[in-house]
Amino acid sequence: xxxxxxADVAEEMASVYSGKLTLYVFLxxxxxxxxxxxxxxxxxxxxxxxxxxxxxxKFFPSVLHQEQTARGTSQYCKFNSQPLTAFTSSLYLxxxxxxFFVASFTRALGRKWSMFGGGVSFLAGATLNGAAxxxxxxxxxxxxxxxxxxxCGLSTPIYLSEMAPPRLRGMxxxxxxxxxxxxxxxxxxxxxxxxxxxxxxxxxxxxxxxAAPACVIAVGSLFLPxxxxxxxxxxxxxxxxxxxxxxxxxDEVDDEYGDLVAAASxxxxxxxxxxxxxxxxxxxxxxxxxxxAMAVLIPFFQQLTxxxxxxxxxxxxxxxxxxxxxxxxxxxxxxxxVNIVATFVSIATVDSLGRRKLLFQGGCQMLVIIGTLxxxxxxxxxxxxxxxxxxxCIVVFICVYVAGFAxxxxxxxxxxxxxxxxxxxxxxGQSISVxxxxxxxxxxxxxxxxxxxxxxxxxxxxxxxxxxxxxxxxSAFLPETKGVPIEKMTVVWKTHWFWGRFYSxxxxxxxxxxxxx
Length: 517
Prior knowledge:
Blueprint: H1 3-13, H2 23-33, H3 35-49, H4 53-59, H5 61-68, H6 82-109, H7 111-130, H8 135-163, H9 169-194, H10 202-208, H11 211-221, H12 228-233, H13 237-248, H14 254-264, H15 266-271, H16 279-282, H17 289-303, H18 307-312, H19 314-320, H20 325-349, H21 355-366, H22 370-378, H23 388-406, H24 409-420, H25 426-455, H26 458-477, H27 490-494, H28 505-515
Helix pairs in contact: 2-8, 2-9, 3-8, 3-9, 3-11, 4-5, 6-7, 6-8, 6-25, 7-8, 7-10, 7-11, 8-9, 8-24, 8-25, 9-10, 9-20, 9-24, 17-24, 17-25, 19-20, 20-23, 21-23, 21-26, 22-23, 22-26
């Protein structure tokens, strides 16, 4: 069945449940979304700190010397340093490893305690980095930050998708991406101010202030209820019913509660018994192949938009194209502000226009070829200076690029994996998505500066090629999920022209049986 028909099914199912957007669920999701602050703050702070001469002089003096003597050599290569990229990318490697353990923790203890653990770990890492005396101390701090990112990156999107009313799930889930953009913007402001501190310790302020968003999510999570889905999955049925009544603002929750119970027991229907569940094994079964493919490809494509290159290397990138130190940090502040404003566009439209249209439009917009402008200035050699007019033009094009990402692949790359998996494999599926995201982010962080040095402006053509591929993929293979209750999401895949082939007749009978529970 065509994707358009799947969208019709979604619209038909959107009005199944009673309830409304209550102040309680809005505030609850708002507090949970602050987990995005720690992710965004780190993305924004890393590039700014690595562009500060005082930081480079203390920890990476060879890079500072290379930057200062880069006149007459390729602008593209003056920041190419393996220790410097290791500082940035160590967080993502730690998050990659941690994500496989966080899934079991989240399943056993619930979403709220996973968010709390993320805040505590990030706080410890921020403390170490702010007080760092050598590179080893920096790396250990980054590893703790990575563990915190893994906890929050896995549990928060699931929590938001499970708590939100189906018709507004996109809007409330994208609150996480909004907080990520706020974290990036805040970090850029901190970097801009810290760079002006005399005495050479401004970088400590930048790194140490990561403790602030860590405290927000750690303390805030203590006041959150766990999601009804998580409570039911752990056998706390009456507590789940109470939470569901409160977040929906009505006592008429029997339909939704029944579907949640049916979703939690679906794996028992397949196995014919209530044997111990093995979500890591189950998620590899044929009937989960469509969701698994998306859990891998969506974060893979998201990172190959090149956005993290723009965000955590923005100050370095702007210095590379010829802007001065203060000007490069201010340009990063500008792109951060654009990121926030454009995210509000996604919040306002994701539940009306749907996921597919935003991804397609954003992909087309990101095909703006930034590399052409940089190539005109530096050519293939990377020599030369840049005029103020051309520098402003490059910043404008980068802002257009960031806006396209911020209302498409940015928020939807987080939303989609969190809403497509059935309950019994949801933490495992989200863990795979986070792991792929962290691996790709790690790979991009490790490879960007060497690739910039060797490919020069052609690197941006590399990312543009991937944007074209992912835009075509969305058009052909991604079904519309707006408005579909999360526990009924399987129907979207069964009615899709391609993914429907992965479901057997037995699957269809189970779906019918569960819908009548």
